[in-house]
Each structure stands twice: as structure tokens, then as C-alpha cells.
Design a protein that fits this description.
Blueprint: H1 2-20, H2 25-41, H3 43-46, E1 54-56, E2 59-60, H4 69-72, H5 74-83, E3 84-85, E4 98-99, H6 107-117, H7 130-139, H8 149-162
Antiparallel strand pairs: 1-2, 3-4
The chain binds heme C.
Heme C binds next to helix 3, helix 4, helix 5 and helix 6.
Length: about 160
């Protein structure tokens, strides 16, 4: 009986996880790797809950990434992680600096951290693959500096037009 109860609680815990992050087995592995990277590389500015570390009512290290349209859109998210982001977002500026990670992180590592962010703290979006990160990395390889939001949005639009 005890064994049976243990089994039921394992199944219940498993299904809770699946409800928050509707990921397959391979994606869950990616999620876990991404969580580890987040907890070492992003947490200082974005906080354990993704809301951004707040210094005082007018100053924060980084924006709240939960529910952000740049997190919901995997292509924009990938471009931010590869090159970094600068300048105000929705009229607000932040103390932290969002540097690009293209030189320090692999496609798989970036896919993992995005899969984690997109499936934690209330976010629920599909996993990101290393292949799609590799494609974006190649497409924007000539850019050297962090995006402003305006440049970021324009970069996606420009490529849409050129592939029409
Ligand atoms: C040193 C501080 C710092 C670190 C470390 C950092 N970020 Fe950021 N992040 C920022 C700041 C500051 C911004 C906003 C930049 C701006 O104002 O243009 C930002 C912006 C973002 C955005 C865009 C949010 C939006 O709504 O547009 C995402 C997504 C993001 N970061 C994810 C990450 C992830 C994932 C990591 C770890 C791999 C990370 N950041 C590491 C400071 C940081």
C-alpha cells in the first residue's frame, strides 16, 4: 500500500510539472539545463522569479520578463540573447546591462535557457530548439552591437520582406 501511495504521488507530481511546462522528455532535459544556466547567469539581474531585481521603487536591475512579448516571440528572444539589448524599454531604463551571449554560449545552452524562461513563472510557450538558434545566429552574424528595441523589431521585419 505504501508503495502504491508513493507511486500515486510521483505521478501526481509529474503531472503538475507537465501542466506548467507542457514539454516532452527531450524538452524537459533542455529545460533543466536551461534552469541551471538561468540560476547562474541571469538571476543576478532578472531574479529567481524573472521579475527583475528591484533596487528601489524607481530602479531595477532588469525588466520583468514574465509575459513580455520578447519572451513570447522566440525569434526576438533569440536575437536579444545573441546580441544583447540596450536603451529604454517602454519608457523605462535599467541599471543592469543585457550583454550578448553569442561568444560565450552554445546554441543548445541558449535554447535551454529560453525553454526554461518560456515555461516558468507563469509563462507557457513551446520549447526552443538548438537548430532554430543556429539559424538565427547565422542570419545575424554580421551585427556587432546590442539592439535597441526599435532595431530589434526592424531586423525581423526586414528579413520578412527580403524572403517574400
Ligand atoms: C547584468 C544584468 C543582466 C544579466 C546577467 C542578464 N540580463 Fe537580461 N536584461 C538586462 C537588462 C538591463 C535588460 C533590459 C535592457 C534594455 O533596457 O534595453 C534585459 C533584457 C532582457 C530581456 C528582454 C525583456 C523584454 O521585455 O524585452 C530578456 C528576455 C532577458 N533579458 C533575458 C535574459 C536571460 C535569459 C539572461 C541569462 C542568460 C539574462 N537576461 C541575463 C539585464 C541582464
Amino acid at each position: 500500500m505504501k508503495k502504491f501511495i508513493t507511486l500515486i504521488s510521483i505521478l501526481a507530481a509529474g503531472s503538475c510539472f507537465a501542466a506548467e511546462a507542457d514539454l516532452n522528455e527531450a524538452e524537459k532535459v533542455l529545460f533543466e539545463k536551461g534552469k541551471t544556466l538561468y540560476m547562474s547567469n541571469c538571476i543576478a539581474c532578472h531574479g529567481p522569479d524573472g521579475k527583475g531585481v528591484v533596487i528601489n521603487p524607481t530602479m531595477a536591475m532588469a525588466p520583468n520578463q514574465n509575459g513580455s512579448p520578447r519572451v513570447a516571440d522566440a525569434e526576438l528572444f533569440t536575437r536579444i540573447l545573441l546580441k544583447g539589448l540596450t536603451g529604454p524599454i517602454e519608457g523605462k531604463t535599467y541599471i543592469g546591462v543585457m550583454i550578448g551571449l553569442e561568444a560565450s554560449q552554445t546554441d543548445e545552452a541558449l535554447a535551454g535557457v529560453m525553454t526554461y524562461v518560456r515555461n516558468s513563472n507563469g509563462n507557457s510557450y513551446p520549447a526552443v530548439t538548438a537548430e532554430s538558434v543556429a539559424k538565427t545566429r547565422e542570419a545575424i552574424k554580421d551585427r556587432k552591437t546590442p539592439w535597441t528595441i526599435e532595431e530589434l523589431l526592424a531586423s525581423v521585419k526586414k528579413e520578412d520582406e527580403s524572403t517574400e
